[in-house]
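hey m, so remember when u said the tokens were messed up on ur end? i reran from scratch. heres the input so u can diff it against urs
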Amino acid sequence: MKPKWIIAGILISIIVHISIMMALGKIQLNLSFTDFIDTYIFESKKESDKHKIIPNTEQLKNLDKKENNNEKVSENVKPENFTKNTEESSQTEFSQENEKIQSEIKNNPFNRFINESMKFDIYWMGIYVGSAIVSVKGDSSEVTITSMVKSASFISNFYYVNDHAESKIEYGKPKHFKLVQVEGKYRGNKETIFDYNQKEIIFINHLKNNTTYHKGIDKVFMDVLSGFFYLRTLPISLKEPVSVDIFDSNKFTTVQVQPIKEEKIELSNKKEIDAIVIKPLLDTEGLFKRKGDIIIWLSKDDSKIPLKIETKVPVGRVTAELKEYKKE
């Protein structure tokens, strides 16, 4: 091929590519975001060329009118007014949030149990087998309830028990629950996180390495430990069952508490106390392994102190009797 035709072909190719690029550029100029950019660029150019243009008298008058109007608008919208309104809005939101918190503190039913401690002796078929200590610490915003159950030394050689439960309650709602169990050959290590702001309950079984998320929670559920203390805040009378919503061992349930009778109970110090006997119909695992119903004797007063707890276990019955009660 002759060199002149090669040169001609290259020139034609260059011209075609330039034409295509120009066409694409025109298409881009029709897009909305490039219209804005183009307008901004054009206005900048006009501003830079202003010194070359001598405006006439009418143009000057129009400019004066625009400047006066702009001044009036700027007078109406003052920065200090905007700042003032923002501060007032923030103060209102803070005040509303503070009132909500104060209301939750005031209505927190668990505050009455702060600095309470109870010690129980545990018997199996009349034989002393261990002890349990339940204590409550905290302040007006957060309360922590702990329960520790340990087998007696000589029983531990046959059936070792070492259970620890802890319930954290924030403004009257459970926040975190931890239960570690060692009962003979049985082992348990479970954790529950109550996130009511996110309407979520998270259950973790550490031994099975399982985590379950329950979302869309629209009401308050108690763990088994806080649920028992919450029960003590409710009015209880014969023939009037009460109920408590419980989340226990990855299961939601409503525990019906049936008052059975009223009677006098004699403690180990030979002191008799008026009590009301109740039976919670709990269909979850609870704080320890068992095979039958739980019967609870509560003092017949506003404190509703647990005086005696009795339940059936795989072999025989276990009874916990209150030996020591303190309230600082």
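this time it looks ok to me. DSSP finds six helices and 14 strands in the chain. if urs says something different then somethings off w ur setup not the seq
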